[in-house]
Structures are given as structure tokens and as C-alpha cells.
């Protein structure tokens, strides 16, 4: 009788190593990526208000420009808190301090 050849799948099954419970938990935890929270418009507006209050002196501007900047940021799709500085640069403001 001839020996039976193992298929590729059977060879993979033989090589499979079982994980311990702790390793399995750690592996599953590493695969989990929390979904980034999407901010509502009023939350983005409030974030910009706080950002502008902290940084307006660095741009040498007053508070009255805040409404105009917010409209520009919304229209240019730069109203995400991560993109505020990029939006101000797009508007033409440069930091002076």
C-alpha cells in the first residue's frame, strides 16, 4: 500500500498552534479599532470657538472675525478640529507670534 499524501490544507492544520486564553484576548483586543466619533455641527462650531479664543492673538486678530472664519471653514470643508489651522492658512491668515 502506498502512503496517502496530505493535501495543503491538512498540512496547514498540522502547523496551526493554539493560543493561550491570555494570548487570544490580547490578539482580539489588538484587532479592535474603536470607531472615531463624528461630531455634530454645533460641536464642531464650539470646538472652533474655543480654538479661536485660544489662538486669535497668535494671528493678530480680534474676536469679530470668528463668524467669517467659521463660514469659510464650513464652505471649504475644513471645519474638522484637526483641520482648523489648515483652514486659517487657506483663508490667508498667518501666525505672527
Overview of this structure, please?
The chain has 97 residues and is mainly α. It has a domain at 41-91. Helix content is 58%, strand content 0%. It has 5 helices and no strands. The longest helix has 19 residues, at 41-59. The termini are far apart. The model has no long low-confidence stretch (mean pLDDT 84).
Overall morphology: rod-shaped
Helices and strands, in order, run as HHHHH
**Radius of gyration in whole Å, from Cα?**
27 Å
SS content category: mainly alpha
Helical stretch count? 5
Number of strands: 0
- Main sheet makeup: none
Percent of residues in helices = 55-70%
Q: In percent, how much strand structure appears in the residues?
A: under 5%
Mean pLDDT: 84
Q: Low-confidence spans: pLDDT under 50, at least 5 residues?
A: none
End-to-end separation: 87 Å
Describe, in short, the structure shown:
With 97 residues, the protein is mainly α.
SSE blueprint and pairings:
Elements (H helix, E strand, L loop, with lengths): L7 H8 L5 H11 L9 H19 L6 H10 L8 H8 L6
